[in-house]
Amino acid sequence: MALLPIAILSILGLSWWMGWGVLRVLVAIFIVWVVVLALMLAAPAAEIRAGLGFDPQLWLAGGMLLGLAIGYFAIVGRLRAEAERRWGTEDAPRFMPVAAPDAPSATPAPSAEARAKTEDQALDRYARHIVLREIGGPGQAKLRDARVLLIGAGGLGAPAALYLAGAGVGRITLADPDTVSVSNLQRQIIYRTADAGRAKGMAAAEALRALNPLIDVHALRKRVTAEDIDLIAQHDLVLDGSDQFADRAAINAACARAGVPLIAGSIAQWEGQLTTYDPARGAPCMACIFPQAPAPGLAPACAEAGVVGPLPGVIGAMMALEAVKQITGAGEGLAGQMLIFDGLYGETRRITLQRDPDCPVCSGLAQRAPEA
User: How far, in Å, are 57, 179, 225, 292 from residue 37 at the CA level?
Assistant: First the structure.
């Protein structure tokens, strides 16, 4: 009577000691179940009850439960293997910065054990993305391979950078010429009081690396101008969080010439707006909508007009959301649309933007075929 449970426990302990996974252990027990079932079929029912001490129907029910468990672990294992396959091969480290071909290697190549650990960390870190139907493993791989230039590490750039880093964007470049001041801390939550006086890009890059060590972060202490076409062309997407019209116009012109989509956000007092400029793919550019700078005093800077602290977080997070959609191809982006948010009354509206055929910036630019 007691021989069968002892045999099953012995197989379970031996299989576990040999390093088998849960699925192999269950398969071993299933084999024992099949052998016992065969004996049941060959012997009369009364002898089975007397010899084993339980009804054959219970044995069949137990086998069904065992089969369900095996099927469950087999599906989970296959999904995990598929997710790992989509991140690349074992011969190449994943989520690790790659040096230029001619650059000397500062550290030895990671071992297979280190690569496996990194893969496990990535799967755990991005699990909530991977289970999303619109992103999944392929979308997360696109985020890993993406190169994003974030201009301005201030009110809009700070939250956008944090969410892009958390989302697993593989390479983030921060460009900002300014230093952290105490007045920034009311809304630029990427910084701490001890960061006052430090270069914004350097302090922000340090915070992003601490948040996600699996990505590559670079900081540039510079103001991006219309001449930085080569810099912009090295990236797949640009997020503009600058606060001066002249800077925004220059960045728009450079992105239009480089053919790189530009996600632009702006804030003032209680209101913010957000859109994607992409004339290379048929959408308008900034100059199509705002061909001239506003009259003096019509659009004062935040230092003059003020801004409520959480507002940059709302718009900056939405910029990061649009970036994730743009990179992964999920949903519908804001190219040709502008989203306007009124934080004082909790209202959101969307308006359609039209491209200007006579735009001095993008009217003569060739359009690119939409990406698959």
Answer: 10, 75, 77, 84
DSSP 208-267: HHHH-TTSEEEEE-S---TT-HHHHHTSSEEEE----HHHHHHHHHHHHHHT--EEEEEE
Q: What is the pLDDT of residue 43?
A: 63
What integer is the mean pLDDT of 202-224? 96
- What does each C-alpha distance from 233 to 102, 217, 236 come to in angstroms? 21, 17, 7
Contact 200, 226 (CB under 8 A): no
- The alpha carbon of 112 is separated from its chain's Cα centroid by a whole number of angstroms, namely 25
Class of domain 128-352: alpha beta
Where are the chain's structural domains?
Answer: 3-85, 128-352
Whole-angstrom Cα distance, residue 243 to residue 220?
18
Beta strands 337-342 and 347-352, pairing class: antiparallel
End-to-end Cα separation, the chain, in angstroms: 64
Q: CA–CA separation, 164 vs 326, rounded Å?
A: 12
pTM, to two decimals: 0.69
Instruction: List the beta bridge partners of residue 265.
Output: 274
pLDDT at 158 over 90: yes
